Amino acid sequence: MENFSASAKQLIDLCEYGPYEQLVSVLQDTLVMKTVLSTEVLQPNPYSNSTEDFLILERMLEAAVRGEQFDHIAALLELGRQYGIAVPYLVTARVVLAAINRPESTLDLFHALERAHSDVWAITLPMGGQVIDGAWISARLFPQARLSLLRHLLARGIDPEQLVGRMVFARHSLLFQMVFWGAPCEMFECLLEHGVVIARSRAQHAAARRGRIDVLEVLLRHGANLDERFGKSALFPDGTALHAAAAAGTMSAVKWLVANGADTTLRNCDGATPGDLLPVDCNDDIAQLLHCRK
Question: Which stretches are ANK repeats (predicted)?
Fold first, then answer.
């Protein structure tokens, strides 16, 4: 727990919660500015005796980012510039982490910080992770925020496969993971337009299992092979996307795949066709569709 002095704590709270006009007014005070530009020696880790010097202005910036106070951020960055504070001492890993922890606003916050630190994406996070991984993982529950972030990263020339990260399905492709995240179709379109390869991604199988017809349509439009075969995994039977859909009982995907030319006669390594994997309570029309179509 960081125990700042009372005057420093008031400034930090003002940056996170207070109105911009009050911050501007307070910063006109010479005594206040002495506090802003000072450092305090604190023990950041209660389980360690080590201490660190903390620049109050940097902690104020972190608080402004945490509070998504964009006017405050601009004012504090300008203040740092006026007083010649080196950017690495102001836009620190803690400040960047505060932006990452606001996933719906991360990209806007990074744009604000980039005015002072042009390569803010290269900063290493406190625990050693990469900014891109942290921002991408943090935004996973906010599809539109992640779409904006994806477009920005691709525009910067980031290799899309770097975004796989240390996730539950990290051994799988980015396209595969996105199906399970419930990513919007625009994200698949964006990645495929930037050269992400469908082959061997198993994206068709994931989309078929989850009934993501919208994703299947995007994949097919970009040349996906609906009859591509894969070995057995914890999530899928051996075989094609049609095997995966049939085994999962995802009838909407079964119908779509058959309608779009998926081969119903292909057998997996166990010799089973998709029809053999249908649930016992499957609709007779579906069973007939799979067993009879050639």
Answer: 199-231, 237-269
